Amino acid sequence: MLEFPRWKVWIVTLVVLLGVLFSIPSLLAGTPYAKQWPGWLPQYKINLGLDLAGGSHLLLEADARDAQKQRIQGMEDSIATELRRDPRIDIGDISTADGRLSFLVRDPTKVDAAVERLRTLTQPLGLTGNRDWDVQVMDSTRIVLIPTASGSTRAMKDAMSVARDVVRRRIDPGGTKEITVLTEGGNRILVEVPGVEDPEALKRLIGQTARLEFKLVDVDANLADVQQGRAPPGSEVLDYPDAVPGLPNVAPAAAAGQTPKIAVKRRVMVSGDQIIRASQGFDQQTNAPIVQITFDTAGARRFGRVTQENVNKPFAIILDNRVISAPNINEPILGGQAQITGNFTVQTANDLAVSLASGKLPVKLVPIEERTVSAELGKDSIHKGVIASVLGTLGVILFMLVTYGRFGVYATVALVVNAFLILAVMAMFNATLTLPGIAGFILTIGAAVDANVLINERIREEIRRGRRLLDAVETGYREAFRAIFDANVTHVISAAIMAIFGSGPVRGFAVVLLIGVVTSVFTAVYFTRMLVALWLRRSRPRELHL
Amino acid sequence: MKLLKLVPDHTNIDFMRWRNLAVILSTFLTVASLAYTAYRGLNLGIDFVGGQVVRVEFTQPVHIEDLRTRVDQLGVGEAGITTLGNERTYQVRLPKPQGSDAASNQVVSKLRTELPKAFPGARVDAGESVSGKVSEELAADGLKAILFAMIGIAIYIWIRFEWQFGVGALLTLAHDVSMTLGFFAFTQLPVDLNVVAALLTIVGYSLNDTVVIYDRIRENLRKYRKMPILELLNVSLNETLARTVVTSLTVLIALGVLMAIGPEVVFGLAIAIFLGVLIGTYSSIYISAPVLVWLKVTGDSFIPADEKAPAGANPA
Q1: Same domain, B290 and B176
Q2: B57, B212, B219: residue with CB nearest A454
Q3: Are residues B235 and B126 in the same domain?
Q4: Residues A495 and A383 placed together within one structural domain of the fold
Q5: Could you give the percent of chain B with pLDDT greater than 70?
Q6: Domain of residue A106, CATH code
Q7: In this complex, do B250 and A399 lie within 8 Å of one another by their Cβ atoms?
Q8: Cβ A483–B123 below 8 Å, yes or no?
Q9: φ and ψ at A321, to 5 degrees?
Q10: Same domain? B155 vs B68
């Protein structure tokens, strides 16, 4: 027992000192002393969870059906583009029903060639030999593309990582705020923004899907059919809510409560994801708010070509499947710059510009969980939590002192060191402290002395059995350790499962428990053992007051 | 200075004498807790059934009926209003947002803007909105987590000790968790995610005493091979009694403080663990130990195989 080599003393002391050092920045945070902490010392700080810092938590889920629909539409566009290239293969009767894409090849002799060219549009998935689309030929003239399950999974994964970046850019265009945007479980995005107390504003920012598309207006469509929602082949009917009565090509609302409709070609001329810049401006003639956009090179070329081919025809500017305006192409637009007019206010034009510049959200996101806490409530919780922690610790310390005397002092020192170590480890791992985490901290304080109690009671017992002092202390530490170890493993099991299954605040609780288990074994066993050994060596007591 | 000894040095309490009575009582209480929980149901928070909750703080005391009238006028659905300790802080709970998986904070926003108009100085401090889909998942995850933790710990005890001890640990855990659930059903205290965290904590911490007692039983089984099992259990329980009492007390002190003056959000968590530790202390003596008698644990279980080999020499 007396043997506690000097190097071990140094190591334990070093760990304790580092613990204190690393925990100080977190303790100073928010007080006037924070600025006086020298810059060359560790700056790690514990993050405060939203329930303590105040802010909004938002969980968004991708609309799987919308994702599938967009994926099929994207494929349809690529196929149309691919087969129109030389040598051209004519296709027709395109159907996107039942979650699959099928079309007729007009010339039956070209079916094989078409299939061959379609294969280049599909992607292999890893080394499995599967591809993301299944290409089949039915009735010898109809080609059917079925998205494979693994292909859909990967497409969703890709879409989610794009969506995550888009969401981040929309909330924080400057990239300066401390926000959290994470993908979760394959089809969800978790957004946490400290300081924002109304998630509605957040949702408005994110929810502006702003899928901008330019399509040609189908001028040959029968307006009576369009009013009924029927479109000629290759076209589709869209709402045009802001249409002024009397516009050509627009079918007026069929009944009160309905919106005017317009038929547009299905084919996309250019889409919003080819925009590299967007800003709000004012129309030079009418002074109405507009959105000015700049296309990337490919987009500019394409836009230029289509406008050149269709001068004097109307085209539709479509935002999220609603037409916002349908101007005439007066002249080819070649520079890659265009302006979007519509029924805008400065605010809506500006919002649209932000969402266009942040990119297209590849999939519709639905909020499924929202939580907000005000900064005041958070501060109040911290205040109460700190008082409870301090009083709880004092209570435990008092109890240990009256029960174990000198050994209670050692347990107390260990307890205080343990508190610092927990904070230090949390700070180093940049862990998040939540309100339940504070509860976990208090619980850990109460439970950490368990190891000391086990050891001290065992020493008492061994002394009663008539062992000599040193022997009793030695046996006490040795025999108690087994139970301490097993009991702590059970804590680790439950805390780890909590960390895996729990969400947000509960995970914060589990993290504190996990860290607390490790640090408390260190302080309650090794650290007190060192203190006891140094004392025994120095004063060589004849009997133990325990 | 005279040190405090809550438990005298040489106790010799015949714990096992009342084991049948205790086990009958515990079984009855466990079954009753589960039955009552099933019958009355838990007061599940929005985390598990979906819905919306706002916490409002007023500058002046407000009568609950006034608040109810105002909220009803907003036409946001049937509101459940509870006070949080005083007449200035209330919690307003509203039904699940429309649509199966969308959480819509519109109602929360409405309260956020309308309440300060009706009650000057009122402030919406916190708002939560959980869709049906998420709440179902949270409930399922919570249940799974508790089951996994119980089984995981039982397996660990089995590996470290013997299968009989693993079964004992599992039964002890089932007892502790059911009783805590029964308490929540009986008091109708709200059950939220924190309470699930508390149940998981109980799974880890209520076993603390059991592990220590089992460790001592194992030690004594090796030491006194001829001692009858009931006597051996009594000896082990008495030897560890002081420690059992003292540790449970330290945890209860810390949690008692948290319950009394901690933030009210964690009250459910604190009271659940407090109770769990109390029940766990009892069950470590009267569930964990008697189970070993029925499952016929003997000293042989811990004799290494090579010592066991000369079977004839060891009339067990």
Answers
A1: yes
A2: B212
A3: no
A4: yes
A5: 91
A6: 3.30.1240
A7: yes
A8: no
A9: 65, 15
A10: no
Structural domain includes residue B60: yes
> Contact at 8 Å (CB) between A450 and A400?
no
In a domain, A389, yes or no: yes
- Window 263-302 of B: residues touching A by CB (8 A cutoff) are 263, 265-266, 269-270, 273
Strands A432-433 and A47-48: parallel
A245: number of Cβ within 10 Å: 8
User: Are residues B161 and B113 part of one domain?
Assistant: no
Q: List B residues 141-170 in contact with A (Cβ-Cβ < 8 A).
A: 141-142, 144-145, 148-149, 152-153, 156-157, 160
Q: Which amino acid is at A98?
A: D
- Residue B6 in any domain: the answer is no
Whether pLDDT at A395 is above 90: yes
b (16+ CB within 10 A) / e for B62-91: beeeebeebbeeeebbebebeebeeebbbb
C-beta atoms of B257 and A367 within 8 A = no
Q: Could you give the count of Cα atoms lying within 13 Å of B242 in the half-sphere of its Cβ?
A: 22
Interface confidence (ipTM) of the complex = 0.86
CATH of the domain at B105: 3.30.70.3220
Whether residue A492 is found in the same domain as residue A526: yes
Nearest CB among B126, B160, B243 relative to A454 is that of B243
Torsion over CA: B8, B9, B13, B19 (sign) = positive
Same-domain check for residues B36 and B123: no
Of the candidates A317, A337, A370, which is a domain's last residue?
A370
Half-sphere exposure (Cβ direction) of A516: Cα atoms closer than 13 Å: 27
* In-domain check, residue A323: yes
Is there a domain that residue A98 lies in?
yes
- The answer to whether residue A169 is domain-embedded is no
Indicate the residue of B10, B125, B243 with minimum beta-carbon distance to A457: B243
For residue B206, the domain's CATH number is: 1.20.1640.10
Q: In terms of CA atoms, which chain B residue is nearest residue A451?
A: B247
Can you give the pLDDT at residue A2? 62
Same structural domain for residues A354 and A384? Answer: no
CB contacts, 8 Å: B152 with chain A: 493-494, 497
State residue B303's pLDDT score.
63
Q: Please tell me which residue of chain B has the smallest CA distance to A462.
A: B239
Structurally, chain B folds into a number of domains equal to 2
Same domain, A319 and A270: yes
Closest CA to B197 of A491, A444, A494: A494
Residue among A369, A385, A546 minimizing CB distance to B103: A369
Tell me the chain B residues in contact with residue A453 when contact means C-beta distances shorter than 8 Å.
243, 246-247, 250
Residue-level pLDDT at B314: 45
CA distance A228 to chain B (A): 28
In terms of Cα–Cα distance, which of A459, A499, A534, A356 is closest to B242?
A: A459
Residues of B in contact with A449 (CB under 8 A): 247, 250
Choose one of A117, A152, A187: the last residue of a domain: A152
Q: Which of A50, A192, A379, A443 to mutate to test the interface with B (most CBs of B within 10 A)?
A: A443
**Which residues, 6+ apart, have CB-to-CB distance to A394 below 8 Å?**
none
Answer for the pair B279, B175: CB distance below 8 angstroms, yes or no.
Answer: yes
B227 and B85, same domain (yes or no): no
Give me B129's structure tokens.
């909105």
Reduce the DSSP state of residue A476 to 3 states and report it. helix
Beta-carbon contacts below 8 Å between A and B: 253
Q: Do B145 and A502 count as a contact with CB atoms less than 8 A apart?
A: yes
The boundaries of the domain holding residue B117 are 51-130
Name the domain count of chain A. 3
Question: Does residue B9 belong to any structural domain of this protein?
Answer: no
Residue numbers of the domain that contains A234: 208-370
Tell me what pLDDT residue A174 has. Answer: 66
Dump pLDDT digits (tens) for B131-161. Answer: 888 888 888 988 899 999 999 999 999 999 9
Residues in B 190-229 with any Cβ partner in A closer than 8 A:
193-194, 196-197, 200-201, 203-205, 207-208, 211-212, 214-216, 219
Whether A490 sits inside 8 A of B208 (CB atoms) is yes
